[in-house]
Amino acid sequence: MPTATGVLLDPAEFDPAGFAPAGPRPADGARRPALPRAGAPPHVWLVRAQHHRAFVLGSAPDVLDAEERARAAALRVPADRECYLATHVALRLLLGAYLERPPREVPLTRVPCPSCGGPHGRPSVAGHPLHYSLSHSGSLGLLAFAATPVGVDTETVPSPAAVREASDALHPRELAELALLPAEARPPAFSRAWVRKEAYLKGLGIGLADDPASWYLGTGVEPAEPPPGWHLSDVAAPPGSTAALAWRGAPGT
Fold first, then answer.
1. Of 9, 22, 80, 180, which residue is 20 to 30 A from 95 by alpha carbon distance?
2. pLDDT tens, 107-121?
């Protein structure tokens, strides 16, 4: 379906069952996505964990590496574990398709943090310029792939109590916007602001090491103007969730 970011794709369309996870290539007839082009919007993929439960459980041992499987096993809430597995299996399958490599053999790493130089910056593929970002919350996962640094975030709309507790994460202008809204409109407005901040900070590669309240990205139905050199867009999400995407423009865009 068209979105402001290009095309929002569901892995149900790019049938994950069309892959042979342990083999060198997708099964005959499976479609490959073309690599994102420089200057073009990122490719954004929506993952509905419940839709792919059986396939994910059967594929995870062959697709995920030992670290990913250990992280999934450490999640105590079954729904969190299911969404983590679905999002990471989809990530591996799509990276394998983009790069024409067995999904499990795609070498994942992280670039140095721009704040401290530590090995916890943006996730990346070792030896390849493709950029990607992922997020998962509730039963929804979101993946973005781009030719430039990219960040994506999705969240379940929080409760009113959670909004009150997390209000210090908002910029003063965003707090003022929230105060003008009726009580029932505040949780989705807060969530819109939050996913925009997370997406942008993940695109920078610093995540929540920076203070989210430092950035004004707006609580309204349209995001505020992003920092120079960046694009910011909300992503269509199912009811009860919000999502956003930030990506660095190519030189000259």
1. 80
2. 998 887 766 666 667
Architecture of 2-248 per CATH?
Alpha-Beta Complex (3.90)
- CB burial of 138-167 (b: ≥16 within 10 Å; e: otherwise) equals bbbbbbbbbbbbbbbbbbbbbeeeebeeee
From 135, 230, 113, select the one nearest 191 (Cα to Cα): 135
Q: Which residues contact 184 (CB under 8 A, 6 or more apart)?
A: none
Residue with tokens 């130089």: 117
Q: What is the pLDDT of residue 9?
A: 46
Q: Are 233 and 42 in contact (CB under 8 A)?
A: no
Please give the structure tokens belonging to residue 61.
């041992």
The span from the CA of 161 to the CA of 164, in Å, is 5
Domain ranges of the chain: 2-248
Dump the DSSP string for 3-58.
Answer: ETTEEEE-TTTS-GGGS-TTSSSPPTT---PPPPPTTSPPEEEEEEGGGGHHHHHH
pLDDT score of 118: 66
Sheet-wide strand order for 150-156:
150-156, 241-248, 230-234
Give the residue ranges of DSSP H helices in the chain: 53-63, 66-73, 78-99, 160-165, 172-179, 186-204
Distance, in Å, from the CA atom of 212 to the CA atom of 233, rounded to the nearest integer, reads: 17
pTM, rounded to two decimals: 0.86
Biggest distance spanned by C-alpha atoms of the chain: 56
- The answer to whether the CB of 196 falls within 8 A of the CB of 232 is yes
- How far apart (Å, rounded) are the C-alpha atoms in residues 32 and 12? 14
